[in-house]
Specification:
- Helices cover 7% and strands 54% of the residues.
- It is built from one helix and 26 strands.
- It is elongated and about 110 Å long.
Length: 342
């Protein structure tokens, strides 16, 4: 019983090792008959090195020619491929003496950059069955290089303009397509991209952003496309945030169990150039629960002090919105407040 168990374990180990070798091991392995000649079938070039390629939009295709050098008909079939991205088809599965079959492989590597391999296992219906292995490799290069890869302008004030030059170039010995052009997103308010210089070995692009009256974060892509299929599309992310005309710090009033004459100060700064010091025109409150004090700090900065009126305390808490209007500006600055009385 012990001997049978030992033999079974050895056989399992050998089978597992063989399967691993078939799919992932070195190409030429005698133990699995992966040489170019197996039981009368000969493949003169069982391994295809596609070399170094920059871009593979439609995948790779190659024909392996397999000849029957024996004196009998040999039946064979595709047993397995190394990945789902590889298709393999035989022109015929029955090869007469002196004739050949063509194994056509279509391979679209899942790996976008770097060296990658593929393999195909052919099963010969001989007695006992044998395996022939063919395959290949390719090194995919990152074609277009760009500096910087992402353009981040961080923050823009209203009406402020910022510019950034981006350099694009191909590997040494290659050239950019003369038909390469810029394609922006459908709606890119505040963004302009323009080719400033274009040569076969280098292209300079100027990206310009402009702050408008709509504050918030923006995320766009500047795309470069070409009609040449061997050169891929390139996307350059552009990020920036447009500030509002007025910035409050902090932008929320929160007070818990305020004491008599306790005041929270908020600093408001104008992000636009002012000919004269900007001033508060009026303040709208949901409830008259604050006494408000105004102090001028500089030409573009003021402070507002909010002192809760303890006589206005009704219930456990009060919350709402305060709209602050400034001179020559119809759009208010909104501040949220929360006062916890008890």
């Amino acid at each position: 019983m012990f001997r049978l168990l030992l033999v079974f374990m050895v056989l399992c180990t050998i089978i597992a090792a063989s399967l691993t070798v078939f799919f992932w091991g070195p190409f030429s392995i005698d133990s699995v008959n992966s040489s170019h000649a197996v039981s009368g079938l000969v493949c003169a070039k069982p391994y295809k090195n596609f070399g170094r390629l920059f871009y593979i939009p439609n995948g790779l295709e190659h024909d392996f020619h397999i000849t029957n050098t024996s004196n009998k008909v040999i039946e064979l079939e595709v047993q397995a491929t190394s990945c789902r991205c590889n298709e393999a088809v035989l022109s015929t599965e029955s090869v007469r003496p002196g004739e050949e079959t063509i194994l056509t492989t279509k391979w679209k590597p899942a790996k976008l950059v770097g060296r990658t391999h593929f393999s195909v296992l052919l099963k010969l219906n001989t007695s006992p069955p044998k395996i022939m292995k063919v395959g290949g490799e390719v090194e995919i290069l990152d074609y277009l290089r760009v500096d910087p890869k992402t353009v981040n302008f961080k923050t823009l004030k209203p009406a402020e303009t910022k510019r950034q030059l981006v350099r694009i170039w191909p590997p040494r010995g290659e050239s950019l397509s003369s038909k390469m052009r810029i394609a922006l997103d459908k709606e890119t308010p505040g963004l302009i991209a323009e080719i400033k210089e274009k040569k076969p070995h280098m292209m300079l692009v100027e990206i310009t952003v402009h702050g408008d009256d709509s504050p918030g974060s923006r995320a766009y892509n500047v795309c470069f496309i070409t009609e040449k299929t061997e050169q891929p599309r390139l996307d350059i992310p552009v990020r920036f945030e447009v500030l509002g005309k007025y910035i409050a710090e902090p932008n929320t009033i929160i007070m818990s169990r305020p004491q008599e004459n306790e005041t929270q100060w908020i600093t408001i700064e104008s992000t636009i150039d002012c000919e004269n010091s900007f001033a508060v025109e009026k303040i709208d409150l949901d409830d008259e629960i604050f006494k408000i004090t105004t102090e001028s700090v500089s030409k573009r900065k003021i402070k507002l002090g909010f002192t809760p009126r303890l006589s206005s305390a009704k219930g456990k808490e009060a919350s709402g919105c305060i709209n602050v209007y400034f001179t020559k500006n119809k759009k208010p600055l909104s501040l949220d407040y929360l006062v916890i009385w008890k």
